[in-house]
Amino acid sequence: MKEKKYDIVVVFLLIGVFMAALDNGIISAALTTINQSFEITAQMGSWGITIYTLGMAISTPIAGKLADMFGRKKVFIVEVILFGLGSLLVALSPNYTFFIIARLIQSFGGGGLFVIASSHIISAYKKEKQGSMLGGLGAMNGIASVLGPNIGSLLINVSGTWHWLFLINVPVAIMIVIFMMIKMPETQEKVRTKIDKYAIMLFSFSTLLMMFAINNIQTGNITGSIFSLSVIGLIILAIIGYAIMILIEYKNESSNVDSFLPYFLLKKPAFSITLIMGVLSGMLIGAIIFIPSFVENVLHVSAANSGYWMTPLALASGVGAAMGGKIVDKKGPIFALVVASIVSIIGYGGLALFTYEVVAFFVFSIIAGLGFGFTIGAPMTVLATRSADSSKNNSTVIGTLSVSRQVGITIAPTLFATFIQVGFSQTGTKIKENLSQAHFNIKDIPHKFMNSMQPDSGSISKTLDQINQIPNKAIRDAITNGIIEATHLAYMPVFLTAAIASMIILILVIVFKKEFKY
């Protein structure tokens, strides 16, 4: 009877998680519109996504610790209020600086919802049911992440403005707060009372340095720029920052400070391996963000409809997360992660190497969605709590895993955007190669079409339309083939990196299987 009492509460926990995860991707459908609204560059506009993922990474473990200290019910309600307030401020932003600050406030509210929901399930349900319940939570989280662009496109088409992408959160947040105040039971653990502010600041600063370093890689001089102070120097500083943070956490073991990333967890080999897998799983989410751009540029789908092509992957991720939860209950998290990794390798690998047409895209995106859902659902959460061998402070354990995943989600888009820029920078070279094979050279291209020869990741359809106006079919085909080759060079590393991340997860699970003692 106890578990039935929690079922309706879990429904509203799921809604809260869905709402926060949705805003991780919904903005991607409106980036161009928002950039035009505030008259900013695309590079500046990307901070609307980056600041949200970074804020989520910082606030996730903090919210988990506060939930242990003051009670999950109180902190969950505060988080929802903060998220709703941030959403309202984003929608009413008079300028881009205000917009970024509001996105940060919104992320601070959204960061704790998943970790509190997960720890509530672990404390409220028996071990035999935790896999299925966490699988449902992972399904909601995964579906929201990949449905974001889809729903964003729909809302913009219906309302005609990007503001409703965020205003819609306000009534949902109010509904969740009212219900949770009435129905959600209070739970809390005995923990230390001081927040680890120095480690939090070092983590935030080091992650920002890492992102700036990746951004500073120059597409025209990759090798030279990587070894410049603006890249390698910032990476070294970031690594030093992370190392100092771990040293602080070590010293906090003997003090009355509630650690940001507890050293007693970090020194457990099984748990540390789980955190590495968490970072890698975040990269799978980061790759999915680029699917609308991929279908637009590789499959030549219109920008207005590209978000809708996330639907098969979104549905498959929900199915995968639910199946993963059931497999965890029956076979355990190790077996589930092995299956998840193999499926993800096939899906993401297929998107990288074999997707040149619509049928292949649907097949491999569905497979990738199943693997993605398996991976981010119950297996890692269950593995983390059991690896930590902790019967208390589950919020801290899950929060630590969540922050590792947010690191992957935060850094991956910056890395992948660099890959895409490098790929598109090869457009001129590929066009020259194809022209040479067809016994032409660059001078044979009509002068008025020369400005179309260097497309970026957002204008390839327009570029191809202009090229189709070139009278000479042989020249037209050579140019088109060069652009298509460059486009595949741009997107192949994104999905190939996700496939490699899944392969590393598989290797870690197999090699360190004995460290997980169950």
TrEMBL record:
The chain crosses the membrane at residues 9-32, 44-63, 75-92, 98-122, 134-156, 162-183, 195-214, 226-248, 269-295, 307-327, 334-354, 360-385, 406-424, 490-512. Keywords: Membrane, Transmembrane, Transmembrane helix, Transport. It is a multi-pass membrane protein. The keyword Membrane applies. This is MFS transporter. The keyword Transport applies. Gene3D superfamilies: MFS general substrate transporter like domains, Multidrug resistance protein D. Coiled coil: none annotated. It is found in: Cell membrane. Residues 9-517 form the Major facilitator superfamily (MFS) profile domain. It comes from Mammaliicoccus fleurettii. It comes from the Bacteria. CDD domains: MFS_MMR_MDR_like (cd17321).
